[in-house]
Design a protein that fits this description.
CATH class: Mainly Beta
Order of helices and strands: HEEEEEEEEEEHH
Strand order of the largest sheet: 1-2-3-6-7-8-9
Distance between the termini: 18 Å
CATH superfamily: FomD-like
Helix content: 25-40%
Number of strands: 10
């Protein structure tokens, strides 16, 4: 874990249970209603924003039990074809990294929005990755809800994530 990550996690931890500035995440879906999530702002620059969401109920992600008391830290960049969610347990250890392949990321002072291209990657802390929802992407391309160009972009960004995973994680909070 980098010093920047430790400082950011510590900031979220210190403010747990206290009021943080609210920030909206707006996910534009191609095959269902859009979703809006109320989050806490951790870091803001016009081209890079970090938000957090406390986990209030347990759920399982690819066999990993994510307990209440942990949280998710989400990273958004203008110009990148992905958003990154770090899933942390209640002790602030990273359980895994979840990448949404996206387009049209727009960062505002009070919100961020993006178009979800459906393809996702789960990456374990040791770098092993699992591709998710390829069938949904293919189905939406076939139906004309996602263009061939968007599919090519999602595929290229997925390859880049796998190839550059360590560099992406090491540069969180400072690569903007």
């Amino acid at each position: 874990m980098t010093r920047w990550q430790e400082e950011s996690y510590a900031k979220v931890e210190r403010k747990r249970g206290r009021s943080l500035m609210q920030y909206l995440e707006i996910k534009r879906n191609v095959h269902k209603a859009d979703q809006t999530f109320s989050c806490n702002l951790v870091y803001y620059q016009p081209d890079y924003v970090v938000i957090s969401m406390p986990r209030t109920r347990p759920f399982v992600m690819l066999g990993n039990q994510l307990e209440p008391g942990g949280f998710t830290v989400a990273h958004f960049w203008n110009g990148r074809g992905y958003v990154l969610y770090e899933f942390l347990n209640p002790g602030n250890q990273v359980v895994g990294y979840y990448f949404h392949l996206v387009s049209d990321v727009i960062i505002y002072e009070d919100s961020v929005e993006y178009k979800d291209l459906l393809l996702d990657l789960w990456v374990y802390p040791d770098g092993r990755s699992v591709e998710l929802d390829r069938d949904e992407l293919d189905d939406c391309v076939e139906k004309g809800l996602i263009s061939q160009e968007e599919m090519r972009s999602a595929n290229e960004w997925a390859k880049e994530i796998v190839r550059s995973f360590n560099a992406i994680v090491m540069n969180l909070y400072r690569d903007h």
